[in-house]
Design brief:
heterodimer, A: about 110 residues, mainly beta, four-stranded antiparallel sheet, about 0% helix, B: about 110 residues, six-stranded mixed sheet, five-stranded antiparallel sheet
Chain lengths: ~110, ~110
């Protein structure tokens, strides 16, 4: 068990809808990362937060947004969903220091119908 | 320049054999090279990582070999076991942030 908790485990929704994925990092970790895993794109970095502030951005669509709250949990909001957004979304956390290891949660599987 | 190329896509090894997975990168600014193991229904889990100032790192049955001049690194799993059957990802980053992952290798160890 990595200590990173993601909810929900599964999510099925329709095109055009909006969903929120939640992540609780490991105790003591200040940095949260979001990754998308799909068959055709593999594991893609979306965004990183450190202690509430956005630290780095990757291939995140404008329809997607995230935030990290004062208690360090994070939410990834996906809106105007399209069929192609169906994927596994992983949250990872680290203590936030240089080259500190990332610990991944078990992901949220999003299915857009 | 951000890409990490991983091969093979899949690998079948006999129990007790050596599994070898290779990765190549382009961005010379990368300074952190981890390997992750992922089982079905689980998130990737860090196996072992290396920095470019060493050519090899060993942890138990897992060894990373690193060739800075060739911009390549590889994972060797010695005495492969059925329990090692999983998907393996190499990755690279600068300072450990924004990990760029390879496409993954599905390893099956036959008993």
């Amino acid at each position: 068990d990595s200590g990173v908790t993601q909810t929900p485990k599964h999510l099925i929704t329709a095109t055009g809808q909006r969903v929120t994925l939640r992540c609780s990092p490991r105790s003591g970790d200040l940095s949260v990362y979001w990754y998308q895993q799909s068959l055709d794109q593999g594991l893609q970095f979306l965004i990183q937060y450190y202690n509430g502030e956005e630290r780095a951005k990757g291939n995140i669509l404008e329809r997607f947004s995230a935030q990290q709250f004062p208690d360090l949990h994070s939410e990834l909001n996906l809106s105007s969903l399209e069929l192609g957004d169906s994927a596994l979304y992983f949250c990872a956390s680290s203590i936030g220091q240089i080259n500190s290891p990332l610990h991944f949660g078990n992901g949220t599987r999003l299915t857009v119908t | 320049q951000q890409q990490v190329k991983q091969s093979p896509q899949s690998l079948i090894v006999q129990k007790g054999g050596i599994s070898i997975i290779n990765c190549a990168y382009e961005n010379t600014a990368f300074d952190y090279f981890p390997w992750y193991q992922q089982f079905p229904g689980k998130g990737p889990a860090l196996l072992i990582a290396i920095r470019p100032d060493v050519s090899e790192k060993k942890e138990g049955r897992f060894t990373i070999s690193f060739n800075k001049s060739a911009k390549q690194f590889s994972l060797h799993i010695m005495d492969s076991q059925p329990g090692d059957s999983a998907t393996y990802f190499c990755a690279a980053s600068r300072y450990g942030n924004k990990l760029v992952f390879g496409a993954g290798t599905i390893l099956r160890v036959k008993s």
